[in-house]
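User: Batch of two.

Assistant: Item 1 of 2:
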Amino acid sequence: MQQLFAADDKFPSVVAALEARGWRRLPFVGCPKFDLKWTNYSKISWWRVTPQQIVSHLQNSITLSQKDQLLRLLYARGNEEQIQVDRCFPRTFDLSQPQERRLLKFWFHYSQAVAVLLETLRNGVKVDAEQVEAAIKLVKTAISNHTTAEERREIEGVLSELERRDPQFHVVGNVWICKPSNLSQGRGIVLCSSFEEIEKITSSSGEQDDQGTETTSSQIKWIVQKYIERPLLLQNDRKFDIRQWVLITELEPKPTVFWFYKSYLRFCSRRYELTRLQDRFTHLSNFSPMWSSDQFRDTLRQKHGRDVWEETILPQMHNTARLTLDAALPKLKAVGRGFEWLGFDFLVDEHHHSLLNWYPRLQPTC
């Protein structure tokens, strides 16, 4: 008997692959009699799925793509696990929680103060009294408009201690990224360089969520995350991200997860310049694959004389995916023969430290 599948038009590769194998496509995604359904999470009627039907999601997997929900799961763990989380994710705050807004204010000024000290050491720049005061309060040191040799040694000592204690020591500066938790594919993203600007942006509204529902300022759940100001740049100083596919096929008796052996890079359209904060083409990567992970690996090997990809970047990506799934898997439920196909997007900074750019997406990239 010919097998039947239902799929949205936005998954042409899936449709083509199934039809090439002799499957017959049903005219409507909502048809209840199918062998396989490949569609958005919101279009699956879980109560109608039979034990033998295959669906392209696990129940409650929306937790993985809703940033506020996953954030709570990640930081609900013990102190040791939270330290691991800080090594994998830029500092992130859910502004629907009043205490998170207060924490954001502290970490904003902390990041700003550390950046002042780092810039002082790198370039010997002058800083004004207000910056000096913030640096004194937040990193327990003092600098003046002209850094003497003694003051320089003091700054170096404080920064060395911070680097040892803070997993995100190098992720500092003034720029933060604001993103509505319920929007995807870059919609609603704004880069801010002042706390007042963050306050203003996160009090506004005017977008539709991923279900097409108009949201008001009271309904929007804003996530604010530290922006990676010094990313690794390639292709004429362009920023990029790495898309890695992960497949969850079983939850019981033991979770079964597959890591696709190849990933790919997607570059921004324009040269990276931090001064152009509102230029989306500078900061948001293209949705089309441009480099394979093999090409990236070869480029790094030629530049550094060692396998940076295999020795440094890839293990960090593995660890980040494992932490994310460990936090979310207990919330997932297999209905029928459900599975989950996730795309993790990673950024790499100038120190070859990989960080999860955004939380796992379920959308195709090309």
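Item 2 of 2:
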Amino acid sequence: MAAIEAEYLRFFTPGGKPTGGYRQALQELEAARSTLVDLEEQGRQLDAFVDRRDRLDAVVDDLVGKLEAAREDLRAQEQADHDLQDRREALEQLTRGLAEADLRLARAREAQETRRALVEDIGKRTLALVEVTEHVTSLDAQ
């Protein structure tokens, strides 16, 4: 029993608390468990970080795609705007040309009306001249 008691006292105090190498081993075990808990938490945090990074990478990839599509759309809109501006300028030229054509048409109609009035007047004067000539001829004949 003395041998058992000696062996017991090698690892425990008479009050039953660990002592010596056993106590140190228990302390190292507790420190290792604490380190393990810390490392497991750090591992979870790292996993969460990697997952978040993957999600953010996907979001960034999506946004980059949308940005490129928006740039393409912007280029198309700028080209459409340029084309529209060209068409506006062409329309303005056509509108000015139409106004000039309307003015020329009005002048031509006015000139045509003047010619018609002159032709009518010449017709009346010719008829009057014929009548006078006939009258003079009839007077000469008498």
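The chain has a mean pLDDT of 94.
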